[in-house]
Design brief:
heterodimer, A: 523 residues, alpha/beta, five-stranded mixed beta sheet, 14 helices, 12 strands, B: 416 residues, 15 helices, 10 strands
Chain lengths: 523, 416
């Protein structure tokens, strides 16, 4: 910490604009004559004297001593500072500093001075004030954050979207290992929105408690609808079923006359919050660009194989494939960027959990946003280039609508959003575990795991030879806990004996483990 | 009967429209009207309220100086040049000095620049003196009032004291010949020698186009709490600190350098203007002089200015209620700056932002070219108009002399 006080520096720096010491303000005010008055000469002599003294002494000798002792002129408030602690002895050896707060000499009689009220602000050197604890105070930081929040809220009110419409998110889902992963992400995205949300979750295989429990964690308005068909294993079938599920949800919108903006939020997609702000601009039906993250291959060989074909193709294929509206230079919709699946012919995944690239359809549902009145039976001002939902879908049957474009007669009326498709605010990704992979029901591990796996007992071949007691990575029961604690305090000699104990335990645990796997949920 | 019907319809319509109006004002008000101690005068039109006569001085006082160094058009003292240009083509200008209320002398005293671009004030007193000698000998209007109906633009650090060092400026005092004239200056500090009573304080020149080109959409949320970029210690002239800014800037640094709410540093980023638009408070501490272009920038970018300069007089103080718009912090209270700023109630902060959003406020701080209604040029003329009519006492009797033409340092008396 700096020791700061009222220093008198000697302007021996030889600069043309160096500063002299403090001069009393009054003498400057009176006329401002340049002829050296006796006081001016006196100060000069004093200055030289102090220079000599400081040369002899080896540290700066303050003229303030003389100033205080000899000053008789009326001086207004002299600003001095209270030095704030942290003085070190070494510093004092260098400088003579004042640690007392001196508040000197308010003028005894003011009314006989020639000048009018002189400023209380004094020219010259001032101390640098530092408070005793110059660090942030957490209470104040919180207050500042509240202020910032209030300012941002006001900004949103004034410059943000006026009259935001309700968002109707339609999500097809089914119970599988990665369902919790995807749904939690989507759920939190929807929870973070400043808009009203109605979330229609259509579940293949009927509405289950698993999904319901997951959805109950959100504070959103959720409509959980069961769809009585099991999700097929093959991706083709899955895409088809998902379309049907979405149509089912649109039917719900139609029957309940939900008002707002309909968007298709697939549970494995990734949405940015800007997307939702952009969606508010839609009038009837709009399209956004979707980034396709199709390269989600797990196998080591795969990337190299794909890489070779990529080099052969055009350069533009090496960039991320994007599906969405295509515009000409005057921002009008002229066509569509679709996904070209020919590149990946024969290399795509067939069934869910296949270790190959999962391909999207030509135009994904999630890239489209609609006004909910499109699907109502009766709606005012609805343009005639929109087909009625009933005429498009023949029952709940095998008909498959590939994309919402089938709902419009004239696809040039679709509004391109997001800077005419230039901005990608949504990514399509289909990462799924193998169809037969297991996961704990509800992702709750109950009863707690008891296994302690010693390295030598496992099939891992490159295990370290010695396992020190404090690097056990196990979830242990209370019994094991006490053992662990005990082993930590013992000497290294006893570690060897504890290992023997652990061997014994693991044998027991193995028997227990096999008994439990049968109770786990099979996907 | 039909009259009654029409009357009824009219009543219904008027009620409808009036209702709509009131409804609009209530929701999400973006700005508020600004009225200072002189009233709601920011949008006044000076045309017709005063007449200004512009003296024709030889070009060595203005054009030639500018030709020698065109950098004068861009630095913060450029107001004197742009005011001259504005007056030449303004409707308030009159070519008949007999009907003029105010007289303007176009002399560019702040255009003698060092290689670094800082103006040297050493020749300015002589230049001014020579200009006044010229106008007093060629026209009778100076001697008529000894300059009481003349105004001069002196935008330098300490105004008409013509020095950059405060101690020396105080010693010199205001040029004796300008004692009766009205001064239009950037410097303003209460009870200071260099601020004459009746002076008009103006903002320093900030390039309007440059600032407009860095505007970002107002919907981008303000996420910085306090923002400042600039020197804390002037290492070249005051290495130990304590002189520069009266130690206030150094105090800001020492107290808040590790505070995450304070985005302060000496670096000069390319996104300086954009950052100001993302900040809630912008510090405007004094430097060697109490005024700074930061105030103008803060107002343009909607960031609440935190003014740390004791007794400062801000631009157009009678037209703009600065206490309602900015936050004043005494220099001795700088260590508690975070407490002060966080304890301001939210409604007060939102009101300040609404006042800052007023376009007439932003316009009043700028010197655009060509001039626009409500800008700083018009505010200066409004200020001059508010001082009219001249008191009878400014007109001196025949032979009466008030000014001392030989007062001042000997070096100033040399001809320029």
């Amino acid at each position: 910490m700096k020791l700061l006080a009222l220093h008198q520096s000697y302007a021996n720096r030889g600069r043309s604009n160096s500063f002299r010491g403090q001069t009393p303000l009054d003498s400057a005010v009176d006329g401002g004559n340049t002829v050296k008055s006796p006081s001016g000469i006196f100060w000069l002599i004093l200055h030289c004297l102090c220079c000599l003294v400081s040369l002899v002494l080896g540290f700066r000798f303050s003229r303030l001593v003389f100033y205080l002792l000899f000053s008789t002129t009326s001086i207004n408030n002299l600003y001095t500072t209270t030095t704030t602690s942290f003085g070190s002895a070494t510093d004092i050896a260098e400088t003579l500093s004042f640690t007392t707060s001196l508040r000197i000499l308010s003028p005894p009689v003011v009314n006989n001075t020639t000048s009018a009220v002189t400023s209380r602000v004094v020219v010259g050197r001032h101390g640098i004030r530092i408070r005793p604890w110059p660090h942030p105070d957490p209470v104040e930081v919180m207050k500042a954050h509240k202020i910032i929040e209030a300012v941002q809220r006001e900004q949103k009110v004034q410059y943000g979207i006026k009259n935001p419409r309700t968002l109707i998110a339609i999500t097809p889902t089914y119970v599988r290992t990665f369902q919790a992963l995807h749904l939690t992400g989507l759920m939190h995205t929807l929870m973070n929105l400043p808009y009203d949300v109605v979330w229609i979750v259509v579940e293949a295989g009927g509405a289950t408690n698993e999904t319901a429990a997951l959805l109950a964690k959100s504070e959103l308005q959720v409509k959980h609808i069961g769809f009585e068909k099991k999700m097929p294993i093959f991706w083709e079938g899955r895409h088809k079923l998902e379309s049907q599920m979405r149509l089912r949800a649109l039917r719900v919108v139609r029957e309940e006359k939900l008002d707002g903006i309909v968007m298709f939020a697939d549970d494995s997609n990734i949405h940015s919050l800007e997307l939702f702000d952009e969606m508010q601009k839609v009038e009837w039906i709009g399209a956004v660009s979707v980034g396709i993250l199709a390269h989600s291959s797990h196998h080591d060989e795969e990337p190299f194989e794909v890489q070779k074909t990529m080099d052969e193709e055009d350069d533009e294929k090496s960039t991320l494939p994007v599906q969405g509206p295509a515009c000409n230079s005057s921002e009008r919709l002229i066509g569509w960027h679709t996904f070209n699946s020919l590149v990946y012919k024969g290399k795509s995944a067939n069934y869910i959990g296949d270790m190959a690239i999962v391909l999207p359809r030509k135009l994904e549902w999630s890239g489209f946003v609609m006004n909910s009145r499109l699907v109502w039976k009766e709606a005012e001002f609805r343009p005639d280039w929109i087909k009625d939902l009933d005429t498009v879908v023949v029952g709940d049957g095998d008909d498959d609508i590939e994309s919402p474009l089938s709902l419009v007669k004239d696809s040039s009326m679709v509004e391109p959003l997001g800077g005419c498709g230039k901005k990608v605010m949504l990514w399509w990704l289909r990462a799924e575990a193998r169809a037969d992979s297991k996961f704990p029901s509800g992702w709750i591990i109950d009863p707690q795991l008891e296994m302690t796996v010693a390295a030598k007992q496992t099939p891992w071949t490159d295990a370290p030879p010695e396992l020190p007691s404090n690097t056990q990575k196990v979830i242990s029961t209370t019994q094991d806990n006490t053992e662990k604690r005990a082993t930590k305090t013992r000497t290294p000699k006893s570690r060897r004996s504890s290992r023997g104990k652990r061997k014994h335990d693991s044998k027991n645990a193995d028997a227990g483990a096999s008994a439990r796997t049968s109770g786990e949920r099979i996907n | 009967m039909s009259n009654l019907m029409w009357g009824l319809i009219l009543l219904v319509f008027s009620a409808f429209f009036l209702n709509l109006d009131a409804f609009e004002l209530r929701k999400g008000q973006k700005t508020e009207r600004i009225s200072g101690s002189a009233g709601d005068v920011l949008e006044d039109d000076p045309v017709g309220r005063l007449k200004v006569f512009v003296y024709e001085l030889p070009s060595k006082y203005n054009k030639k100086i500018l030709q020698k160094d065109p950098r004068c058009l861009n630095h913060m003292f450029a107001a004197e040049i742009y005011m001259h240009r504005f007056l030449l083509s303004s409707p308030v200008r009159t070519l008949n000095p007999e009907e003029a209320d105010w007289f303007y002398t176009p002399v560019y005293t702040t255009c003698d620049l060092t290689p670094n671009g800082l103006p040297l004030p050493f020749k300015s007193p002589r230049m001014m003196r020579s200009a006044i000698q010229l106008i007093s000998s060629n026209w009778p209007y100076w001697n008529r009032t000894e300059g009481a109906d003349h105004f001069f633009i002196v935008p330098h650090d300490f105004g008409a004291c013509f020095h950059y060092q405060e101690e020396k400026a105080i010693e010199r005092g205001i040029l004796p010949l300008l004692q009766r004239a009205t001064l239009v200056q950037t410097f303003g500090q209460r009870n200071h020698v260099c601020l004459k009573e009746g002076s008009i304080t103006v903002p320093p020149y900030a390039p309007p186009q440059k600032m407009q080109s860095h505007l970002i959409p107002p919907s981008i949320p303000r996420s910085i709490f306090v923002y400042f970029r600039g020197l804390f210690y002037d290492v070249g002239n005051d290495p130990e600190g304590g002189y520069y800014a009266r130690g206030a800037r150094a105090a800001v640094w020492e107290n808040f350098k590790d505070n995450p709410l304070f985005d302060i540093s000496t670096e000069h980023p390319t996104t300086y203007y954009e950052d100001m638009q993302r900040a809630v408070f912008c510090l405007c501490p004094l430097g060697w002089a109490p005024w700074s272009p930061r105030l103008v920038e803060a107002v343009i970018f909607g960031c609440i200015p935190v003014i740390i300069a004791d007794d400062i007089v801000l631009p157009f103080a009678d037209a703009i209620p600065w206490e309602d718009i900015g936050v004043y912090v005494d220099e001795k209270d700088v260590p508690n700056l975070d407490t002060i700023l966080t304890s301001i109630p939210t409604e007060v902060i939102l009101r300040k932002q609404r006042l800052l959003a007023n376009p007439s406020m932003k316009q009043a701080m700028l010197f655009p070219h060509p001039a626009q209604p409500g800008d700083a040029f018009h505010q200066i003329l409004n200020g001059l108009a508010r001082k009219l009519p001249h008191d009878k006492s400014v007109y001196l009797r025949k032979g009466e002399k008030v000014l001392n033409w030989t007062a001042g340092p000997l070096a100033d008396l040399k001809p320029w």
